What does this fold into?
Amino acid sequence: MSTTVGKAETTLKEGAKKGGLKEGDLAPAFDLPGAGGDKISLAALKGKKVVLYFYPKDDTSGCTKEAIDFNGLRDDFAKAKAVVVGMSPDPIKNHDKFRAKYELSLPLASDEEKDTLGAYGVWVEKSMYGRKYMGVERTTVLIGPDGRVAKIWRKVKVPGHAEEVLAAAKAL
It folds into this structure.
């Protein structure tokens, strides 16, 4: 099985050469299809705090818990003037089913080409049971109203994470 992923791999390699995305960097722009027929772009969110959380796959235990946690705090994020967006490489039809099944209202972006995942440095080589494969490293990026990365959480553990991100969004 090849781990070649086209442009996303190139973007990831270029990001790795530069040390990857860091706090203070300008957040990479994106314009992606979203669940429910939405278009989701960083440009459209300009001037707002953006919580961009990257997750591996719709309707898996950890990803479901994370989505439910963020969705449950959406009013608190709104009070903090922050928009929460989930992103994975799953197709839109999967996002639509996932949102319906768990009554999620937060936007979910689909990056099937993995270009944005690569630009944010979350499309990485992973290993399970000795098998190497490419996948999403669970990561959350808090982007300030100025479009710069304010905070990055890598290799996220789901319990308590949404609350920690909310606290950081309120403090920003």
Notes: Confidence is low (pLDDT under 50) at residues 1-19.
